[in-house]
Write a structure and sequence with these properties.
alpha+beta; MoaC_sf; lyase; MoaC
Length: 170
């Protein structure tokens, strides 16, 4: 393990938790894309698409929830760095039957990545969909949730399915 890898740890010399010091890292453009899905009855998905859910426009509210969650990730995830986000885009697609797919792309120019912000965004979106539709259906399923890609930073780019970008010591 090199010096850089030893410094980028959430533990100090005494084994106590710390926030990683990224002050020596260069500032770069960084992007992360995450996805999750919500599986539901066909009728529930149809009501979402039609905008006929009693609580209102599910997708519009869920988009705002995802953007807000991305902006506040450091408040939710211990030792996550607060980042000035330069862009958050939440999008939806469905399979025409029973599954709503949620994708979030998050961007920053900074010293650390936005993977956690993208993952937090899709999680908040899925939970908002559930909350707004639970009167119609309580047995909706959320997940799996995963990182699709990330660009920028010292560790390089990552695309889901590309195991060469994964580091065994992380």
């Amino acid at each position: 393990m090199g010096d850089d890898e030893r410094r980028l740890t959430h533990f100090n010399e005494q084994g106590r938790a710390i926030m990683v010091d990224v002050s020596e890292k260069p500032t770069t453009a960084r992007t992360a894309v995450a996805e999750t899905k919500v599986t539901m009855n066909e009728e529930t998905l149809l009501r979402i698409r039609e905008g006929s859910v009693a609580k209102g426009d599910v997708l519009a509210v869920a988009q705002v929830a995802g953007i807000q969650a991305a902006k506040r990730t450091a408040d939710w995830i211990p030792m996550c760095h607060p980042l000035p986000l330069t862009g958050v885009n939440v999008s939806f697609r469905d399979n025409g039957k029973d599954t709503l797919y949620i994708t979030a792309e998050v961007k920053t120019t900074g010293k650390t990545g936005v993977e956690m912000e993208a993952l937090t965004a899709v999680s908040a979106v899925a939970l908002t969909v559930y909350d707004m539709c639970k009167a119609l259906q309580k047995d909706m399923e959320i997940g799996p949730t995963r990182l699709l890609s990330k660009t920028g930073g010292k560790s390089g780019d990552y695309k889901a399915g590309d195991r060469s970008a994964e580091r065994p010591d992380c």
